[in-house]
Amino acid sequence: MKSNSSNIICFLLLVFFTSLSFCSNTDTIVKKLYSPDGNLIINIDNNEKELTYSLNANGQTLISKSSISLFQNSKVEILKTEQVKINTTWTPVWGQFSEIQNYYNELKVTLLHNKTPYKLFIRAYNNGAAFRYEIDQIPKNSTPSFYIEYDLPKESVFYTHAGETKPKGPIALSTLSDSISNQKLFMPLMVENKEKPFIALLESDLASAPGFKVIDFNFDKERNKLIAKNDYNLKSNSLITPWRLILFEKNIGDLVTNMVPLNVAAPNKISDPSWIKPGKTLWDWRVHGYVAEDGFTYGIDNESYYRFIDFAAKNNIEYFLIDDSWYTDVKKGHIEMSEKLDLQKVSDYAKKKGVKLILYYDRHKGVYGDEELFPFYSSLGMSGVKYGFMGKNVSFSREAIRLSANSKLLIDFHDNPVPFTGMTRTYPNAVAREYCHAQQDSRRAFTPEAFIRMALINAIQGPLDMNNGIFDISGVNSGKREKGPKKLNSLITTVTAEAARTLIIFSGLVCIPDAPEAYTAKLDLFEFIQKMPVGKWDESKVLHAKMDEYISTARRHKKEWFIGSVHSKGGSLDINFDFLKEGKTYAITYYEDTDETDSKTNPEAYQIRKGTVKKGDIVKAKMVKGGGHCMWIRPE
């Protein structure tokens, strides 16, 4: 017994001193940082001209020696380094996971510039690296600029977000030049290398970094390296930069569920977030001109909105989004209401039915003043605002999120907004944004390939508002909507693919854009969307993914699983139920394309069947070209 006690004491002392030596090291300059699993190695080095870093993962070079600096072309001296190891778990207000592990090793590097110390923080995660600068006092006559190079393998190709159009790529690194105005590379930038992990380059936590704009990528032909440079708009004598992130995953789909961007973001700043409820919303904009079977024509009027609200109340849809035409003019402190409807009556009706309203606001029509805007929306009985045309103005958008939170309003951004990666942790009222080609945007209809690209690229930066879920595909294609695509028969999809897309694209506000009657006509298929608990997921995983071809996503809420798959070329995907619990039998409902389904000529044909599955079963999800497949699984 004495011997065992001595061994335990010795072991505990060994762990303590080992941990102590790892957690704080100021006597020697450490230039190598390992991820917790030891597979990622971040090397740093310096000479008089520059500080450099490199990344190696699982024995492969991801990024060769590359420069990183806050003050370019100035002498860099490392004063000291300190290491810490962090392993915590936190609970998001809503998200793809109900608990998130924040597990990393960090190296704090104290540097010297013009006799002024400043710090570079480097974090090594098992699936990513992060870099951030902080300085308490910016030296006089010094202009900080967060500059970083990425010396990627020469065979690298890029895929990039492209605003309200299909993401661009593959763009070969070898084709880039100093002037890439015709090949602009935006965040998040996805990098594909043969037989190496997929890489995503982006930033996070702009919420904590006033004075910085969103990064774009350029190419330094002389150094033959991709670069990201972001000048600082001097507003104070101190600064903190955003985190620059390098994510890597063996499977391309795992970049979408990589939690490093959220882990580095500032914690929730809303003291009581209980009012923040993610959910589904109906939307009037794409329905204008739709004629129901009873002859009713949808437009901007109370009766149309009552129909939306009735359907939402009956079918577990939490919100109804009223778009642009509820008002006609905006002046400082005044919004001129449209004479076509009585908004107060609509608001009262929605409240009576238990449906929350979200109201659009468009800065093109005038500036009301944000200090007054959000309290005004709250006084109207609104639960959220869809804010249009703020663009990539970081400080303006950050302030809109903060002010909307003060008035207990959700906020969803229209057009081509700021990619606020990590913002859903800091301000979880920021539920969605159209950082994508929202379906039928600019009256264009995107392709199945474009959807898959956005699901694998744009979605890396956070929740999207893509407006999937069209059930009256034939009606849209034949031009029976005022806001439908300009080109007839340009919407290539199937109704099961539309249902699957609402699950695949993660969001805190799933906006379904069709008429209540379109969903009522296919209520058995609509069940998949109706049962889906938006934003309240305990677990999410991408089962299959290939650029331009297919994606299959599974999400769990408590004991239920929802799986959505789409395939641009047509084919089948093996869904392995190895994630189910051992010894239990699950009921499953399949929502499928049929043998007669055709994404161009017969897009609304579908079938529903039921069965049982258990752990280890493999089901083939069969899809036509441009089609989809859905599953709802729950314990018997």
TrEMBL record:
| UniProt-recorded Gene Ontology molecular function terms | hydrolase activity
- How far does the signal peptide extend, from start to end residue? 1-21
Q: Specify one Pfam family.
A: GH97_C
Ranges of residues in domain Glycosyl-hydrolase 97 catalytic = 290-434
The cofactor(s) it depends on are:
Ca(2+)
Keywords of the record? Calcium, Hydrolase, Signal
- Ranges where the Glycosyl-hydrolase 97 C-terminal oligomerisation domain occurs: 536-633
Residue ranges of every copy of the Glycosyl-hydrolase 97 N-terminal domain listed in the record: 34-267
Taxonomically, which superkingdom?
A: Bacteria
Q: PANTHER family, per this entry?
A: GLUCAN 1,4-ALPHA-GLUCOSIDASE SUSB-RELATED
Assembly and binders:
Monomer.
- Name used for this protein in its record: Glycoside hydrolase family 97 catalytic domain-containing protein
The protein's organism comes out as Aureibaculum flavum
Query: What lineage is on file?
Result: Bacteria, Pseudomonadati, Bacteroidota, Flavobacteriia, Flavobacteriales
